[in-house]
Predict the 3D structure of the following.
Amino acid sequence: MKKILLLLLLGLFYARYSFAQTKIWAGTTTDWHTASNWNPVGVPTASDDVEINTTTNNPVISSAASARSVKLSIANSGLTINNGVILTLSSDDNIPLLIHGGTLTNNGTINVTNAKATFDGTSGTIRLQSNGTLDNAGTVTVSGGLNFALNIAQGTFNNLTGGAVMTSGREVIHSSNTDARFNNNSGATLTGTGDHTGAIFNPGKLTNTGTVNITGTIETYTANSTITNNACGIIKITGDYYNNASVTTTNAGQLQISGDLYNDGTFTNNGVLVANSYPTFTNRRVRINNNATNTTIFTISSSAGSSTINGIFLDIAATNSAGTYTQNNNTFVPGNFAAGTYILYAKVSFGSCTFVVPFTYVKPPTRRYVKTSATGTGDGTSWANATNDIQAMINASASGDSVWIATGVYIPLYDGTGNANPANVRHKIFYMKSGVKLFGGFAGTETSIDQRDFKTNRTIFSGDADNNDTNTDGNFIAESYTDIQGNNSYHVLGVIGCDKTTRIDGITFTAGKSGVSGDPQQTVGSSSLSTVFGPAINITASFPTVTNCVFIGNNGMYGATYHNNVNGTDTVKINNSFYLNNRAQFGGGMFIHRGHTLVDNVVMFNNSSDYGGAVNISSNMQAGKTIRFTNTTIVNNYSTSYKSFRTEAGDVSFINTIIWNETPYNGGNISKSGGTLTSSYSILQNSGAGGIWNDNYGTDGGNNYDGNPFFTDISDIDGADNKFFSTDDGLSLTGCSPGINTGTNSNVFESDITNSPRPYSNGIADIGAYERQSAPTITNAPTNVSVNKTVICPGNTVTLSAQCSTGTITWYNQATGGTAIGTGNNLNQSPAANIIYYSACEAGNCKSERVATAEITISTVSSNISLSASISGTAIYASSNTIMATNKVLSTANVQYLANNSISLDAGFEANTGAVFVAKATPIAACN
């Protein structure tokens, strides 16, 4: 067995090496392909190592050839590859191409591969030593693997005009001698990728008049290292450039460094230079600065001669202008493209050279300014030069830009095509541009968004196109849809085809009035828009964020806001906003037609419709689309049909939400005919939470409550300061609200509708749009509620008892409302008629639910009483004369017979076992 294994191993060894030979050039002619020119005889094959150690009849390759390696081993030895010819070299243990003092001239193609499995720091894939030379006018492709691609120990690599060198390996170039040179001539290219380092000159010299592209860094060491980029030469590297001590780098062409420039030696720029960051160096012409302001993109010197900046472009072909550059003041004015970080291209000329040089440019968002009356130049470039034309500012903006709008009333000036005098004035509309941000609520002097006070400085977008709406209070807001008169805009704002970076913030939308079915379509930009959807905002094929807005007194067919994002995957977001006193046929506040919608920190109050007083979610909503209401307060809304919240499709959820005091249609607040609905951590009137759950609220997700949320003042929702978004708003929670600290912190905003922190003091979030900013003062319901007697004679007294864990025991004679009749435990009352008393625990404005006593029955006094019917309960029969009894007192009875003169228990009378029966001939005054 051992003998067989040995023979097998010998066979494998023989198979690999039996034909591998070293072929030594012995040519009597220059023909590589003549067998007799080799010793041993035979033309080299891919398994042979080749050595050329003579200076006569140096070989010429005139057709395709292969070898494991080629070595030019003496000075003046040579090898020539003719045009159109390919020499292929590949070795896993030798240097594939070693030029030791000789000269290799390539006019064809050389493909060289180093397949060695380990790194050898002294070899390389092509190695030049002892003044070896490689002159390339063709193509050289080097695959260095784990080793250097070009190792120039001592020698010169001349990449001649038309030559192309493409390399990969540990380093593109590794040079280690004063006389190590790589010359890249005009019209020549060197392209390489260094897995460890792009190129190291330690020492060495690179002279370029052509094009060099290196993936990796360039590192230069010792005094004899020089990098010279001649006029019109281009050097590009993706990494850092290290110009170490005593090294000299001179750039007279284009030097493009994607990384940082480090300089401890002599670095002189006589051309155009760009780097991520710069040290101290000598700039004598053009330095391009990444991420610079519009006046510092170029650092220009004329020390090396004049230069011309021919423009800044969006493309490397320099055909699409990025804006206007003015060289005499070194200022760039960017064009109308979106804010963000870009690679732009500077076209720079000097002498006979022209370069297109990429650099990083951060285009800041452009801010434009609007007031009700134009000021200064009226071009919208500042508050001092504000325009009064909102639409013009939107149109001039690019994605990421913003329009700041001062306080005041703004009515659309144009229809959706830009016509200031349309045949139908109702077609006038504001319309958004994708990615643009509208901010209202400014006084008109602010320099930061944080300085605005949109609560005080109301920016009003009104649909009162013919300026004749009812305006008795002079604020130009339709407090009710009934204030709308005449011809109002079909839509105050259109948001059509806008992406998720689009924002509408701090604006009051009022007096929009939709059309009716059959009205002609409206053209907005390049889109056709129905007039019946969304009188305040129509959101179509768009995913904006709408925040800090008020929708009041709009009248439509489908919502005050209409959401139809046409099956998109992004989301419409409505945050920190109010829907007040709007009217629609479907969805008085909002009509959600299609797509994801998230509603957070929103108040919907006193809206009305035929179908869905506050919200209508359309049956066209796709399955799986999320419609989530979080920390919303939905109060006092009215529907003539299908209740105040109507959901027909989609995956709907209520989280931390209050639904209260709705005016129901046929009972209840929710109409659910399709999709899914889950309610959790919410106060939901008529939901049956804690008892028999009302399925109209969908699935009980837990932690729900059916009871009074205890608002501060439901009759004054903007509070004493008459400003929405304030902590004194009437729909904020009192300290005893069951909504305090009973929500969930999952998926909630970090602030509430007033911008106060949520949750308060890092606790648990409240339910509803408002987060109370103080500790709760919740009062629990009373316990041990009782009365000492349940049946009494007229004028007699009962004692009421109860206990409160907090607050004062307070008594009422009705279940809700009314005035307290007294306080404390052991309260005495003399009722004049049958009655139930109610106790509550109260502390200041906090009042618990009322808990009832047993009913108290007043016994009446008659002259003569005749009893024949059986008695099973508690009763007192009082007579001013006589009682005659033939009845049965059953075992469950507690009965007193009281008479002034006599009591007759006649035949048929019976008091069963267990009954409590008292008969007294006593004055009526003793009745108790």
About this structure: Helices lie at 2-17, 390-396. The radius of gyration is 46 Å. The chain is about 0% helix and 40% strand. Residues 2-17 form the longest helix (16 residues).
